Amino acid sequence: MLEKKQESEKFSSNLRINNLLGNILDQLCPFLEEQAYYINELTAIGRALSAQQDPDAILDMILTQARRFTGSDGGTLYLLSNDGRELVFNVVHTDSLNIRMGGTSGNPVTLPNVPLFCKNGQPNMNNVSAYVANTSEVVNLSDVYKTEGFNFDGTNDFDTSLNYRSQSMLVIPMQDHADEIIGVLQLINAKDPLTQETIPFPSDTAELAMALASQASVVLTQQRLIREMKKLFESFIRSIATAIDGKSKHTSGHIERVAELTMMIADKVNEAKEGPFGCVRFTMNEMEELRLAAWMHDTGKITTPEHVVDKSSKLEKVFDSIELVKTRWEVIMLARQLEAEKSKFAMVKEAADPIKVEEIDTACKSDILQLNNDLNFLIDISRGSESMPEEKMTRLKNIALRRFSVGSTEHRFLNDNELYNLSIPRGTLTNEERKIINNHALMTIKILKELPWPKKLSNVPVIAGAHHEKLDGSGHPLGLSGDQVNLQSRIMAVADIFEALSAPDRPYKKPMSLRETIQILGLMVEDNHIDKNVVDLFINSGLIYEYAEKFLNPAQVDIR
Questions:
Q1: What is the pTM of this model?
Q2: Quick one: how far is CA 558 from the chain centroid?
Q3: Do residues 156 and 165 lie in contact, with contact meaning Cβ atoms separated by under 8 Å?
Q4: Quick one: pLDDT at residue 34?
Q5: Tell me, what's the pLDDT at 230?
Q6: Up-side HSE of residue 66: CA atoms within 13 Å toward CB?
Q7: Which residues pair with 406 in a beta bridge?
């Protein structure tokens, strides 16, 4: 009997314990489920914030989710100003008043910034948001008008003007990974989910809002660092472009103009609704690749000797050797005049016929005139602004073969190096110098491939390095042809050629008119060097005139 009684009591005790545990679990499960829900929500919000790229959308999302978690009617998201002395209103929401300012609303924020310091330089502790920013403390107020220590004049003005009643307020600091303040999240008027009456912010929802603010701070800091790194990279690219353009006094602004024209053409491609580009659309990443490639297309020129980059005439090296030719011509003409004077002196001494003396003067003047004509011819062809037809080449060779004497030493009118450079058929570069110049495209590829490009920008080196390729395979540096030359590079090639032909700031050549540049582009299309569709789009869309109005001299615009 005793054993049965003990077993019965044990059973009853276990039953009571089980019932108690059951009651505890019944009470705990909803709480655990609620916590799991909020954790899942925070995780989902974190993923959404991380995936969002639009800064305004991120700010809107932060305030919207914080208000949803806390059931608040309104809220404000402040960010620290660049100088760190003010809180700047970025997003403002008030549901009951249907107010949306900042963020993605399209409505500008009209509220004044909140100063973090007083006129005497001390931290501003009177304004609650400034206090939170200066102390990194969370402030949870049940009723702002029954709170001492803070100045709510601004809140009162807001309430009075819009017939609103601000009551409960939760103000949370937003800090980066170094615990530095980046902003403040301010929530107003928590609502009871059943009665919709304004209530104080419960401690548990305040904790959730703080967790969200912390998560949002990480995302905002990440976005800020990305923007700063991008800005630094952009500045670096532009400084390199400036340095490259600065290597030559004749190409200032070339890279910037090519970059702008390249993107203008790419925009037109994206706008096309019919024709060869009707179905072509560059993605945002492809546009970014093209823009960076255009800014860096001449990066390889940092390895090109300055005297080659800057060679504006055929005889220019460290200095223009045409000056040596001019000096030599003075010596030649002086020697010819001296020879004539010696001949006349000998004849006068022997009482020669005056007519013969006059003949010596005439012959000397004729030779001097011819020497001046020859010198002007050499100066003219040294500019390289025109091609060298066969008759000019023959005249050059005949001049080079002539000789003059200084004392007992005989010299050629032109040495081998001068003859070789002056014989350049087109432009100012020898074959060797042109290879050095052309090598800049290959060096561009090599230099840019050394950079750790992200996957979405991995084509920048290829696009930048192919701007001198030709569709028939005769270009450089890789001899690509046809579809091997991507569309971005084809666009840049047209922009690069057009800028070089029309640039009005080249002191060594006259800028071509639009009519002339269009003719040359047409010939290059016929030779299968550049893309006909890109050229047609550039001209027929009117983009060529838009560019001309911005960058060319009015005198160059000879067609419409």
A1: 0.66
A2: 32
A3: no
A4: 45
A5: 82
A6: 38
A7: 409
Between the alpha carbon of residue 498 and those of residues 257, 272, 449, 513, the distances in Å are 10, 21, 27, 11
Q: Which of 146, 159, 150 is nearest to 128 (CA)?
A: 150
Which among 194, 186, 337, 280 has a CA at the least distance from the CA of 537? 280
Number of neighbouring beta carbons within 10 Å of residue 247: 17
Separation between Cα atoms, residue 288 and residue 331, nearest integer Å:
60
Structure token pair of residue 436: 């050095």
The whole-number pLDDT of residue 27 equals: 53
Residues 77 and 58 sit within 8 Å (Cβ to Cβ): no
Spatial neighbors of 273 by CB under 8 A, at least 6 apart, are none
Amino acid, res. 228: E
Size (the chain), residues? 560
Short-list 405, 400, 397, 410, CA closest to 334: 405
Cα–Cα separations (whole angstroms), residue 329 to 172, 270, 315, 480:
85, 59, 15, 48
Q: Strand 86-94 relative to strand 99-102: parallel, antiparallel, unpaired?
A: antiparallel
Alpha-carbon span 549 to 413, nearest angstrom: 48
Across the strands, what pairs with 76? Answer: 92, 186
Phi-psi region of 81 (alpha: psi -120 to 50; beta: other; left: phi over 0): beta
Query: Any residues with CB less than 8 A from the CB of 425 and at least 6 apart, and which?
Result: 387, 388, 393
Residue 248, pLDDT score: 64
Vertex 293, ends 292 and 298: CA angle to 5°?
115
Low-confidence stretches of the chain (pLDDT < 70) are 1-53, 247-252, 309-310, 318, 348-352, 505-509
Q: What are phi and psi of 184, to 5 degrees?
A: -140, 135
* 3-class SS of residue 466: coil
Distance, first Cα to last Cα, the chain: 119
- Do residues 470 and 509 lie in contact, with contact meaning Cβ atoms separated by under 8 Å? no
CA-CA distance, 374 to 129, in Å (whole number)? 84
H or E element in which residue 65 lies: helix 55-70
Q: Give the residue carrying structure tokens 């005497």.
A: 120
Yes or no: say if 534 and 265 are a contact pair by the CB < 8 Å rule.
yes
Which stretches within 383-486 are classed as H helix?
A: 390-401, 416-422, 431-449, 460-465
Angle formed by the axes of helices 514-526 and 532-540, nearest 10°: 160
CATH number of 251-300+438-556: 1.10.3210.10
φ/ψ (deg, to 5) at 485: -90, 110
Task: Tell me if residue 87 falls in helix, strand or coil.
Answer: strand
Q: Which helix (H) or strand (E) holds 91?
A: strand 86-94
Q: In terms of CATH, what superfamily is 54-226?
A: GAF domain (3.30.450.40)
What pLDDT was estimated at residue 42? 46
Query: How many CB atoms are located within 10 Å of the residue 391 CB?
Result: 8
Residue 88 to residues 80, 96, 196, 277, 486: CA-CA distances in angstroms? 6, 23, 30, 44, 45
CA 226 and chain centroid, separation: 15
Give the DSSP H/E element, type plus range, for residue 199.
strand 198-199
